Amino acid sequence: MKVYIIGLGLIGGSLAIDIQKEFKDATIFGIDTNENHLNEALELGIIQKKTSLESLNNADVIIISVPVDTSLNLIKDVLDLISEDAVVIDVGSTKVDICKSVENHPKRRNFLASHPIAGTEFSGPKAAIKDLYRGKTNIICEVEKTAFKLQEKALSIFTKIGMRIRYMDPRSHDKHIAYVSHLSHISSFMLGKTVIEKEKNERDIFDMAGSGFASTVRLAKSSPEMWTPIFKQNKVNVIEILEEYILNLQNFKELMEKNNFDQIHAEMQNTNHIKQILNGILSNA
Amino acid sequence: MKVYIIGLGLIGGSLAIDIQKEFKDATIFGIDTNENHLNEALELGIIQKKTSLESLNNADVIIISVPVDTSLNLIKDVLDLISEDAVVIDVGSTKVDICKSVENHPKRRNFLASHPIAGTEFSGPKAAIKDLYRGKTNIICEVEKTAFKLQEKALSIFTKIGMRIRYMDPRSHDKHIAYVSHLSHISSFMLGKTVIEKEKNERDIFDMAGSGFASTVRLAKSSPEMWTPIFKQNKVNVIEILEEYILNLQNFKELMEKNNFDQIHAEMQNTNHIKQILNGILSNA
Question: What is the average per-residue pLDDT within B266-275?
């Protein structure tokens, strides 16, 4: 099985590692516009060969793990280049615009839209780790638009590397992922910004920060190159949930100003059952 | 050494465990208004004996780890009851009101105000863990107001359990801790609230949440009983930083509305150097 991975960052690189581990007959070919990343991936053993788009006609499986704005044209170009039996899998964090970009492509049935919900705050080939996907969820969109045999091929990869599959339409995906992923990134980036601005002249104050602060600002280490196009493509959903978040924060502030600490207690208590929800996530983590 | 711990939750219980480990001559006495917690602490071996305030005159060291509103009167009452050579250490998350509550007490020199910056999102005696304090920072306030020999006694405990000591005045402590701890708790509670409200009819959506969401809402599991009085006592500082956080979120939203994604990229990139800051925290964690 010849697997071509376009984009050798955290997501693509980790897929390469797990596919090599689970499929002994797999050869991993790497493509990246960043020549340094390509060389790093080869040195780290993440890929077996460096290659370019011109050789895509030899591929069985093509995984596209690049910033989501790049995907909009790249997926179409890749579909133009592949053989009839190859499957092109995108793994981006948005789905509406990506599915739309290929809806009228003559090789639409060679394409599978997916979003493996896994990652860390790091990026680049050095961030790639094995078993990143084990026990995690992969959202597949518009599965019915992919040729049956190619669905099977793609799903055998995802299930072998340990993922559980959920099916969803692109609109629902983009809406809900704004709530449970994209908003967290904004809250974290702005928390980091707020505190850095306040403490810019007193850097040793960060001595006082504990593991709680580290946890809430962890995502502020994420790559702006990945996240800017995600926010752009999912703008409507992200703005909607961001507004609700701001309203809840304003409400909390007003309760404090009015000394209504009974209500503040109630708000926190009502939110405490996030424990059960998080236990669900962590048991899959 | 007879160590009396008043309040056997995560903080008091974890101190009990580490003090027992490091001081072979220590006997740990427990006091708690919650009889269940007291019995649990005894069964778990966190304390050796249950006792009550009446026997405090036998204590060498008294640690007060209760909600910060309770401390305001409790510390004074405890000071009234202890012997001349005992040291009373409070470990609460606010310092201005607590220091003020004892400023005119005749036994002020028997009191040491501290804030060990350590914890988890869990609470109660079952949450107590060993080595919680190792490598963490302890902020000591108004050290000059504590008798020299009693400073020494308290510091020997904190350094033996692995803490590094920083000295700070109560006002600076409360201001900076609002930035690097209290704000994180509000951002996390309101993030949890926002997403739970949105998804209340679609609980299986949390299948989609990954480790990033778990990390940013982790603190929303914290105890409302501990945190309501903290926000109350540190109201002015918390409101000030919360306002700045809200302004930064509004600004981010407006940049999205205006499609100014170049600036959004710049904001994230500028905040990325939180990496170095967090590396500092984590290397102490």
Answer: 91
Do A267 and B189 make contact, defined as CB atoms within 8 angstroms? yes
Min Cα–Cα distance to chain B from A122, Å: 10
Q: Give the SS3 label for residue A104.
A: coil
**Residue type at B24 in one-letter notation:** K
CATH code for the part of the protein at B2-169: 3.40.50.720
CATH 3.40.50.720 segments of chain A? 2-169
Q: Where in chain B is the domain with CATH 1.10.3660.10?
A: 173-284
pLDDT at B200: 79
Residues 6+ apart with CB under 8 A from A236: none
Query: What does the alpha-carbon distance between residue B249 and residue A252 come to, in Å, rounded to a whole number?
Result: 15
pLDDT in tens, B236-270: 999 999 999 999 999 999 999 999 999 999 999 99
The alpha-carbon gap from A256 to the nearest alpha carbon of chain B, in Å, equals 7
Task: Compute φ and ψ for B50, nearest 5 degrees.
Answer: -85, 145
- Tokens 């249950």: give the residue: B50
E strand or H helix at A167, and its extent? strand A164-168
- Considering the entire predicted model, what is its pTM? 0.92
Homologous superfamily of the B173-284 domain (CATH) = 6-phosphogluconate dehydrogenase C-terminal like domain (1.10.3660.10)
Of A193, A221, A232, nearest to B275 by CB-CB distance is: A221
Task: Kindly identify which residue of chain B lies nearest to residue A264, measuring between CA atoms.
Answer: B228
| Whether B5 contacts B31, CB under 8 Å | yes
